[in-house]
Design a protein that fits this description.
By secondary structure, the chain is α+β, with helices and mostly antiparallel strands. It is built from six helices and nine strands; from the N terminus they run αβαβαββααβββββα. It has helices spanning 5-15, 54-63, 83-96, 129-139, 144-157, 227-244, and strands at residues 40-41, 75-78, 103-114, 117-126, 162-170, 173-174, 180-192, 195-208, 211-219. The strands form two sheets. The chain has a seven-stranded antiparallel β-sheet, sandwiched between helices. Strands 1-6 form a two-stranded parallel sheet. α1 packs parallel to α5 (144-157), α2 runs antiparallel to α6 and α3 (83-96) runs antiparallel to α5. The longest helix has 18 residues, at 227-244. It is globular, with a radius of gyration of 17 Å. It starts with a helix and ends with a helix.
């Protein structure tokens, strides 16, 4: 699953521009706080199936990506994946004490923006369903908040922002059709050029067989985005993956 701090880094770069340097807020989710667990209610698990081919994996990852029809009025931009993303994935995996993830397919997806709201949609396909479950378990484990903070501080620091506080709160999400799902509300504040900037948003994720589906939301303080809307988008993506399977 994509490291949500990559989204935070992009938003921090926006925050450093004159148009957005007023107080912003960014919450995102994917870690967990304290030893709390993330609750999820789902439909029956996806039946065991024949291992995916690379072609089938790519098709299922593509099916998970949201479209402009899902977010009318938003500007869509294709996202890219680079070596820096891989380095951050590896850094997070090392901190969590798990092997760096490898995938059958990855789709960096699309970024949708409207004013100071950004919704990011992406998907990865694990090599096996067991690998996907293990990654999700590590991603929501007790050590995740500290690891996310370390990666976040490093990534966002490259944009000239120093992280001063970081919190992560697990959210109960229901994603019909998924094998497992999680939701987090994350928050951090940072300083730059003598100013304090607050970011807010959500990160939601679901596992469908081998497919790891992610929907992240980042919004300014004046443009709060409901968690229910993010979960609704995630549920839509999960349904399309199951149809494509």
């Amino acid at each position: 699953m994509r490291v949500w701090s990559l989204y935070a880094a992009r938003m921090s770069r926006r925050a450093l521009t004159p148009a957005v340097l007023s107080t912003c807020a960014l919450l995102a989710l994917t870690g967990c706080s304290g030893g709390s667990s993330v609750s999820s209610k789902t439909a029956a698990p996806t039946p065991t199936a024949t291992p995916l081919t690379a072609t089938a994996a790519a098709a299922q990852a593509k099916a998970a990506i949201l479209t402009t029809a899902d977010l009318p009025g938003y500007a869509a931009t294709k996202q890219t994946h680079d070596a820096g993303d891989d380095a951050n994935d590896a850094k997070l995996a090392t901190c969590l004490g798990v092997p760096a993830p490898t995938y059958l397919a990855r789709d960096s997806g699309t970024s949708f923006t409207k004013g100071e709201v950004e919704v990011d949609s992406s998907a990865d396909v694990a090599k096996t369903a067991a690998a996907g479950k293990a990654e999700l378990a590590a991603f929501t484990g007790a050590t995740a908040p500290g690891c996310l903070k370390d990666v976040l501080s490093s990534v966002v620091g490259a944009s000239g922002l120093t992280v001063t506080t970081f919190t992560a709160e697990p959210q109960t999400v229901t994603v019909v059709g998924s094998d497992a799902a999680f939701g987090y509300k994350l928050a951090f504040t940072g300083t730059t050029q003598g100013r304090t900037i607050e970011f807010s948003g959500f990160e939601t994720g679901a596992l469908v067989g081998q497919v790891e589906v992610s929907v992240s939301v980042i919004a300014s303080a004046a443009s709060r985005y409901p968690l229910a809307n993010a979960v609704g988008l995630l549920t839509t993506a999960v349904g399309r993956v199951k149809t494509a399977a």
